[in-house]
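Notes taken during the Thursday session

The instructor put the following on the board and asked us to keep it in front of us for the whole hour. The protein is FAS1 domain-containing protein. We were told not to look anything up and to reason only from what is written here. First, the residues (303 in total):
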Amino acid sequence: MMQFPKLVNFLDGTTNVTVFLPSDQAFLNLEKQFPSYYNSILEKNSTMFKFLQCNSEMSIIFKLTNLDHVLGYSYDVNLQEASRTFQTTYSNEPLMISIDSDHNINVGSGIERVARVTHTQYATNGIINFIDDVLVPPRKFEFVVRSRPDLSSFYKFVLSSPGMLSALNALKGTTIFAPTNKAFQKLNATESNKDIYNHVGVVSSIIDYHIIKPMVSSLIFATFSAKGNSVATGLPGENMTITFNGSYGVVHGASECNEAELIQTDIILDGGNMLHLIDTVLLPSVNAMNYAKKNNYTLRPSF
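Then, after some discussion, the predicted structure tokens were revealed:
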């Protein structure tokens, strides 16, 4: 520990913190299951790798994950009553804490490497929650969408708009509704919609229409009324409406017949963004798409 004096001072200070501490076995599992990711971390932390070989992982976990395992305040997960909540890590990224049907407390980003809290230890300056897996920091939009087979059509759609992928990777504090492959199959089933792919401006406008600000989790959807909440999108001048039917959220496009159900929610992305999967491609108004086609719309999400 003394090799990292700043870390020691931080953990031994007067500021209350909450730490999610992986076990030694968690690190061994990480190495076996994701060797390339494990090695990429160690290559960037060669000095700590040598330290890791003969010392407890406790002293380096925070360096390895840029404090994504630490909350900058005291939060007792054992007192959590809601089935799901979002806290902010010391590295300013959201962390989902949920309680499953067996009353286990789980933490993670909502997409991979969800860790279970095995036991808790209380300290004078905070709380240590021991977990059975290493938390992977939220990934960028590109990594998440490209790695999911059910979003391959959406990924290709984004790539067809020059510069759009970089713009989505750089977003901060937004919510992205990602149509699945089945959603694009429904879109393509209508002959007139096939013309969309021939106009980059229209493609760009549709992608921007799937983004809102700020980051909205499924917990917020549950507060929306059946009449719906109108929300500004990344496409200037175009709103979408979000309703809650009692069990899941529904996102409505510009026309009455264009609506999408949320089929998977709360996938946390890098930069404080949130990704939700929907079963239908949302379309802005006809006027907006015609304008985008005529003027070769190239704006990126605007807020």
